[in-house]
Amino acid sequence: MMRTILSAIVATTVLAFPALAAPKTQPVEITFDARVGDQPAKCGQNYSGIGTAKAGLTLQDFRLYVSGIRLITASGKDVPVQLTPDDQWQSKTVTLLDFVDGTGACNGNSGMNTMVRGTVPKGKYRGLAFDISVPFSENHQDPTLAPSPLNVSGMTWPWRIGYKFVGIDIETSGGKPGPNAATGFSIHLGSTECGEGSPRTAPTAPCANPNRPALRFSKFDVKNNRVVLDLAALLAESDVTVNAPQSASGCMSFPGDADCNAIMDRMGLPFDGKPSGGQKWIRVE
Predict the structure, then answer these.
(1) Tens digit of pLDDT for each residue in 81-139?
(2) Dihedrals φ, ψ of 184, to 5°?
(3) pTM (2 decimals)?
């Protein structure tokens, strides 16, 4: 008799408080995949046919910050993903994706992260949107005092400029001898023209060139799709065996660097007053 009464009480409680019976949120894992063309991007592997010079490539570094991650509902509404902090790769606002394991010519250590983890309100979603950036409110700070994942020294510039949103370094081969010949090429994306003042002070206004790629894919199934970042596609219109005169190696995001013209365009960013034709290096599979 007592067991019957208790069962009735439990059933009544569940009916009266449906929130106790069904979770309001669902977990989300968004997978990112680094490639060089149709091959996985791996440390210690040599690639060929890269860029306009059809050069050789060996990976040294491939990391980037993503933020503002949203899933898109069937009606087109953006729903923010609530990131799950893990004291290493994710905070509540930003995720560091790391595709290098420190072997071969690669920098860093063996730790890698190819996934964004979080939760969204329970429901069905059909698309994905995200930014390659660190939020402005966190972009200009002392990285030695910042929490993970914003305490990675290899992804920082002076505080006034902020973080490298993308940090890609490669060794190259196959170029022709000449005064501008290069055996390495870097892509360090970040904000530029962030006002006058000490490099160790934050700007009081947004940088003139925020350089924050915004990606949006109307069709993305979290369970079956992944985001592919194709380094060969990013470099398709660049000669990685030469370096523009009087400029840093590769593209460091600063105006006037001719090595950035094609890179910024393919990232979907305006550069030196020229609009972009749209990003051409990230796709969904």
Answers:
(1) 999 999 999 999 999 999 999 999 998 888 999 999 999 999 999 999 999 999 999 99
(2) -155, 155
(3) 0.91
Residue 2, domain member (yes or no): no
119: in domain? yes
Kindly state whether residue 177 falls inside one of the protein's structural domains: yes
Q: Kindly report, residue by residue over 175-209, the tens digit of the pLDDT.
A: 888 888 999 999 999 999 999 999 989 998 999 99
- How far apart (Å, rounded) are the C-alpha atoms in residues 200 and 274? 30
Question: Domain residues for 147?
Answer: 24-284
For residues 240 and 50, the answer to whether their CB atoms sit within 8 Å is yes
Burial of 283 (0-12, 13-18, 19+ CB in 10 A): middle
Which amino acid appears at position 254 of this protein? F
State the sign of the Cα–Cα–Cα–Cα dihedral 181, 106, 224, 134: negative
Q: In this structure, which amino acid lies at residue 275?
A: P
The three-state secondary structure class of 265 is: helix
Cα(113)–Cα(95) distance, rounded to whole angstroms?
9
Tell me the per-residue pLDDT of 13-53, one tens digit each, with 9 for 90 and over.
444 444 455 679 999 999 999 999 999 999 999 999 999 99
Total number of domains constituting the chain? 1
Answer whether residue 100 is part of any domain.
Answer: yes
Q: Hey, what amino acid is at 172?
A: T
